[in-house]
Each structure stands twice: as C-alpha cells, then as structure tokens.
Amino acid sequence: MARSKQPTPPTATAGSTFPSAEAVDIAQLVEDLDGMLTRLRLGAIREQLDGLLEEAARRQLNLREALAWLCAAEVASKEQRRLSMAMTIAHFPFVRTLEGFEFEAQPSIDPAKIRDLATCRWIANGDNVVLLGPPGVGKTHLEVALGREAVSRGYTVQFTTAMELLGSLVKGQQQGSLEMRLAQYSKPKLLIVDELGYLPLEPQAGYLFFQLISRRYEQGSVLISSNRAVEEWDEVFGDQVVASAILDRLLHHSHVVTIRGDSYRLREKRRSGLFRPQAGGSSSSGVGGTPPPTPAKEA
Ligand code: ADP
Ligand code: MG
C-alpha cells in the first residue's frame, strides 16, 4: 500500500498507552518527523535537527540528555522570539541599555539606585518612577534601558511620548473612543511616558491624563520623564487641581530620580569649543542642571 503524503504518526486513543517500539514503523516515524515537529510547533528543533543531533552524538549524550539538549534549543529560540516580539510591541524609539549608560558623565545619578530599579521590583509592586532633569541628560536613555529590562523579565511594556499619549486621549474624547484608548493604555504592566512638559498641552489633556493615572493607580506602573520640576506641573497641565490630583496618585508609591547636569549631547560640542556654558547659577525654571548653553562668540 502506498504511504500517504501527510504525516500519520500513531495516535494513542483515550485511555490507551503509546504502542511499543516493535509495534510501530520507526522508519515511517523518522520520515514523518518533520511533520510531527511542525505539528508540535517545535520549529527550532526542526530547523536545526541535523546539527543538534550531530552535537549530541559528538558529546556522547545519552537519550535523556539529548532530549534535554533539544528542548533547551527550542526553549531558547522561543524565548528569543518572545523577547523580540515584546520589544517591537513596546515601541522603543531606539535601543539603549544600562551597560551603555556612562554614570561618570552624570554624577547626580546614583548608580545603585538605577541598578535597583533595573531589578524591576518596583514594577512588581505597581510603583511609579519619575525622572526629572533638563534636556539631554539621559532621561529617555534610562527609560528605554529600564523598559528593556522590564521586557526581558516578562513584563508588558509600552513606550509613548506625553504628546502622543495625550493627543490620542484628546482625539478619543472627540471621536467617542476615549474608553477604548484608556483601556489600551491601562493594559501594559509598565507604561513609559516620555517628555512631559516640553510642549504645551490641550486644556482638557490634564483631566484625561488624570483619568488614565487613576485607572493605573496601584495596578500598573508608570515611568514618566519631564524637564519640569513637579512644582511646575500646574503650569504644564494648566490646572492646579488636576495637577495635584495627578501628582497625588503618581507620587504615592514612587521613586523620583532628579538629574542635575549637563546635556550629554552637547558635551562633545562644548569640548570642541562650539558652545560655552552660560555664566550664573541654576535656571529659573525647569529642573536643576546647567542652563541651556549659548553659542560661543566668534573670536
Ligand atoms: P533626555 O531624554 O534627558 O533629553 P537622552 O536620553 O535623549 O536625554 O540623551 C541624549 C543622547 O545622549 C542619547 O543618545 C543618549 O543615549 C545619550 N546619553 C545621555 N546621557 C548619557 C550617558 N550618561 N551615557 C551615555 N549616553 C548618554
Ligand atoms: Mg528625552
């Protein structure tokens, strides 16, 4: 009888055990192996089978060891795929890591504090992190790096900017889809909101943001960065009552990291003499740090 094209591995019926090796056609099983691996969604084993078996033979692994070796390859490949999918879903604007962060360049940051945040315990507890500092001091870098740590530990993460988020909520309110959008931004375990305070917000944005923060309160974490001190958030949201309601929830269980220092971006330029630091103390508004540089006068 001609063999069917479809893989037809022996199937155990309910209550029965798998047939003994003598009772099955092993040659047929080997022929069907690809199909069975596909059916079991063991793509990594299927694709690397020859290499994995050769390596197992070379190392003289016994059957149990060889099976564990094959499973490990599949688990590693699935984990890799999960990671890269979760990183894509998170929508990070670029790749930045904690290893790539020069702590010496930003002495106002306590490396131990950031390393502690990198353990993601705060996310497990539903706490928030507020990163404050002038432009260029590494707020977005740290957000992305901490966000990647969270993804690698299995948390769902979404990165967005304050403009994008609040723009979306305002649009939702206008189009009758606010509830859907609030639900969408409430879903990820960690929501990263970058650059609050850089651009003026619509009048209703503060109240919409308050609704989101209330929903996420003690449920999911928010990592938010701003160039404006929290005392100035009244101005940012254009409403003192709304701003204090937002801060009340945001800061209740929170870690605040205030960065005071020079823009990393302008360091090189400053070194090359393109810019010189402004004379005088700290800036009148915003968070600490050196005031914006002024172009150096031509000699
Ligand atoms: P901010 O969000 O505070 O305006 P960014 O995080 O965007 O600043 O930093 C600007 C650029 O400088 C980014 O490319 C970032 O990776 C880099 N950068 C900032 N601070 C550091 C640092 N301490 N070590 C390494 N790179 C840094
Ligand atoms: Mg930034």
Describe the 3D structure.
The protein is α/β, with parallel strands linked by helices and 299 residues long. It is 48% helix and 11% strand. The strands form 2 sheets. A 5-stranded parallel β-sheet has the order 2-3-4-1-5. The protein has a two-stranded antiparallel ribbon with strand order 6-7. It starts with 25 loop residues before the first helix and ends with a strand. The model is unreliable at 279-285 and 289-299 (pLDDT under 50). The structure holds adenosine-5'-diphosphate (ADP) and magnesium ion. Magnesium ion binds next to helix 6 and strand 3.
How would you summarize what this structure contains?
The protein is of the alpha/beta class. The protein is built from 12 helices and 7 strands.
List the defining traits of the structure above.
elongated; 12 helices; 5-stranded parallel β-sheet; binds adenosine-5'-diphosphate; alpha/beta; disordered C terminus; binds magnesium ion
